[in-house]
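Why should sequence recovery work at all? Because a backbone constrains its sequence more than one might expect. Tight turns favour small or flexible residues, buried strands favour hydrophobic ones, and helices have their own preferences. The token representation captures these environments compactly. In the example below, the structure is given first.
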């Protein structure tokens, strides 16, 4: 039995690979628990986590990405620190990104997505995905093996977002390369978070596109994005539109690739599960939901208390960092029966919190589900079986997998698979 009393969630490499024994330990202590380091309180059960996610009035998202690192640039004063948060927001790492914005700015920024993720664009984008999936699979189909992250996931996800935003087809490879070369995972253990935007190069390229479209409009999606306005009719600063589009690239690529790898790992390790889903492809959406619940890309994110508030049994003053452990809530036995098992017939299969809740729920959730479904459909169509490549991960019963060393996100560094071509 591991002694978790002094475990540091933010520095423990073993927890990066498998945090669930620690999460269960925390859940036994209550719905919310004071962590022994960095002044963080963790919401660990489903109900408390959901309540914090939905409460935009008493919790600010200004620290959503970085949490307590670095410390707040101000000393909380009084019973409501909203004014201090607003005054110092621009000095806080990632404080201006949509994921860190609060009302009224967040819904105002999010409204611009209405010009990007429209039903028409999603339909056109889905048609592009079917062809793209086959093109990407063609690069390794004759080999009988592939590595999910590098050979399929990253190039596929990056080009899906490029197409969604209307990047010209001749520039897809360039843009995908920019995303891959500049992507940085927040919350990396042993790394120092900074205010440097990890997607600066991508942002510069998008700025060029959108500046050109504002100066010389065309009949294309980029022009629609460049001309998008706030609900009150105001034309946003170009930098705000670029920031939103760049964030879509970062979030859309990383989280979707982790979903691919999680779903394929479950299928490759469980021949009976794979046979069932192959025989009844109507089960693919349920498999995706269970992969999201069990291995969601985001293990946790943060909120900052604006006012005195109670979380679980704890009374918290303004300025407290609250971490919502989504991965713990998704396996809360009080919410999900047999929480550590895949159950394709689970009655509440869509109640997981992997895409968040409230005003910050993931706007790309429908897109991620479509990408995963198409990926599995095409791999099933073009192969007869998929399994773990023992040459890289070891034999059955002694598998070796390496996970990203981060306390915020969950995903394999690589997943090597072998398959038989249909």
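From this structural description, the recovered sequence reads:
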């Amino acid at each position: 039995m591991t002694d978790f009393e002094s475990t540091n969630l933010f520095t423990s490499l073993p927890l990066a690979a498998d945090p669930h024994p620690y999460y269960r330990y925390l859940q036994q202590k209550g719905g919310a628990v004071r962590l022994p380091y960095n002044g963080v309180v963790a919401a660990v059960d489903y109900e408390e986590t959901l309540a914090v996610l939905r409460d935009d009035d008493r919790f600010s998202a200004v620290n959503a990405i970085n949490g307590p690192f670095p410390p707040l640039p101000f000393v909380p004063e009084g019973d409501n620190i909203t004014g201090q948060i607003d005054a110092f927001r621009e000095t806080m790492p990632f404080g201006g990104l949509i994921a860190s914005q609060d009302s009224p700015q967040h819904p105002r920024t999010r409204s611009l997505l209405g010009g990007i993720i429209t039903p028409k664009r999603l339909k056109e984008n889905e048609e592009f995905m079917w062809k793209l999936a086959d093109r990407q699979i063609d690069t390794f189909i004759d080999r009988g093996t592939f590595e999910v992250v590098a050979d399929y996931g990253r190039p596929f996800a990056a080009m899906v977002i490029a197409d969604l935003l209307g990047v010209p087809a001749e520039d897809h490879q360039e843009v995908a390369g920019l995303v891959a070369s500049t992507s940085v995972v927040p919350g990396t253990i042993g790394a120092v978070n900074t205010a440097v935007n990890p997607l600066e190069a991508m942002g510069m390229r998008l700025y060029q596109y959108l500046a050109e479209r504002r100066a010389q409009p065309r009949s294309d999606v980029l022009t629609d994005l460049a001309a998008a306005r706030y609900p009150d009719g105001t034309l946003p600063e170009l930098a705000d539109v670029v920031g939103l589009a760049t964030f879509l690239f970062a979030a859309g690529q990383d989280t979707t690739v982790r979903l691919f790898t999680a779903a394929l790992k479950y299928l490759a390790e469980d021949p009976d599960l794979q046979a069932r889903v192959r025989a009844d492809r109507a089960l693919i959406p349920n498999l995706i939901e269970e992969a999201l619940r069990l291995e969601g890309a985001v293990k946790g994110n943060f909120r900052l208390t604006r006012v005195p508030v109670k979380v679980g049994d704890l009374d918290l003053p303004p300025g407290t960092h609250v971490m919502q452990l989504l991965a713990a809530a998704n396996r809360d036995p009080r919410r999900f029966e047999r929480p550590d098992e895949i159950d394709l017939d689970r009655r509440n299969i869509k109640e997981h919190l992997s895409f968040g809740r409230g005003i910050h729920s993931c706007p790309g959730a429908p897109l991620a589900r479509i990408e995963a479904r198409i990926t599995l459909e095409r791999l099933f169509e073009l192969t007869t079986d998929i399994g773990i490549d023992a040459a890289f991960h070891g034999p059955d019963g002694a598998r070796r997998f390496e996970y990203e060393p981060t306390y915020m996100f969950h995903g394999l560094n690589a997943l090597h698979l072998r398959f038989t071509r249909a």
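A few observations help interpret the result. DSSP finds 16 helices and ten strands in the chain.
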